[in-house]
């Protein structure tokens, strides 16, 4: 609380220095009624308080770079939710607008983007990032300023531990690691598995650790553990070690561009063991990069577009109508995160960071595309995971695994 007040004062001082009228900013810390400047420009919109503009929500996503489809799909999902909420009258009579910055998949850009969204654009809340390392960087900034952030799909355990302003609508990696360990033991009957992970990404390292822990607890053996770094393109040394260890399967908890190159090089080296991974595989680009090399591979994910639940059917239909594409997991998570945030805004006592965070934290059994969402005390969502298989370059549903 004291931190919030301090932040408030700092912003107020900065506003005075810049000679701008603080109440004219779009920051929503004050009750709407009566706080707007007299010259706020009554637009004549029925029901809107004079001075009330749209509610500005910030988004930071990787629109370009090696993880470009993550940001693009997430943004598509978010914009579908925005279109729907605005068509239904907005939130408390106000329209929602999104201000987007491209992180290019870079950690430094994530911190800069969230700083700009909050200090310059005065957003009410922040949506993003996808990659956990980027959410860790951006989340630290949002927490510092007391602005709520909802990450659609960052699964690393540490992300929501940043503080009371940081939420997520997805499951976490200790669970995802358990899911793939269980799947390799029960379905693939694997005794010995090799792992190859990106040691520069919080997500990849955390998911590797979780998988190794669960798999060994289930009586499995780790035949070889190999690492690479973001930007690497030659994986032959690591793969040669893995080939020599003769694993029954290989677990590759990385992002799709790297996974695609790894799969190609593995098959070239004569490795025929099945490949497995996590949600980082979820991109239509993966089969384009790897072709045959990734066929038959299994990965855990947040939803399957083949599920028959009405939430899934309605979403797939609306998304296809708007974008002429089948929505991937990222699109579904972006949509769910945005809808959940808008629902909390409707219930919140005010749109101050504190009130909004409280309303997000009180979300219970919220019907969503990726399953019912209840935000727990750790600001995480507890949900089942699905296992998908790449077949003919598409995602085929294999199994649903419930939380432990
Ligand atoms: N879970 C990944 C991370 O935390 C991001 C991701 C989510 C990627 C969903 C693809 C699909 O970094």
Question: Which secondary structure elements does this structure contain, and how are they paired or packed?
Answer:
Blueprint: H1 2-17, E1 55-61, H2 68-87, E2 96-102, H3 107-119, E3 125-128, H4 132-145, E4 149-151, E5 166-168, H5 173-186, E6 192-198, H6 202-217, E7 221-228, H7 236-244, E8 249-251, H8 256-268, E9 275-277, H9 285-290, E10 298-301, H10 310-323, H11 329-347, H12 353-361, E11 385-391, E12 394-401
Bound molecules: phenylalanine.
List keywords for this structure.
404 residues, alpha/beta, Rossmann fold, 2 domains, 5-stranded parallel beta sheet, 40% helix, globular, disordered N terminus, binds phenylalanine
Kindly describe this structure.
With 404 residues, the chain is α/β, with parallel strands linked by helices. The protein has two domains: 242 residues, Response regulator (Rossmann fold, 3-Layer(aba) Sandwich); 129 residues, Rossmann fold, CATH 3.40.50. The chain is built from twelve helices and twelve strands. The strands form two sheets. The protein has a seven-stranded mixed β-sheet with strand order 7-6-8-9-10-11-12, sandwiched between helices. Strands 2-1-3-4-5 form a five-stranded parallel β-sheet, sandwiched between helices. Helix 3 packs parallel to helix 4 and helix 11 crosses helix 12. The longest helix is centred in the N-terminal third of the chain and has 20 residues. The N terminus is likely disordered. The structure holds phenylalanine (PHE). The site of phenylalanine has 14 residues, from helix 11.
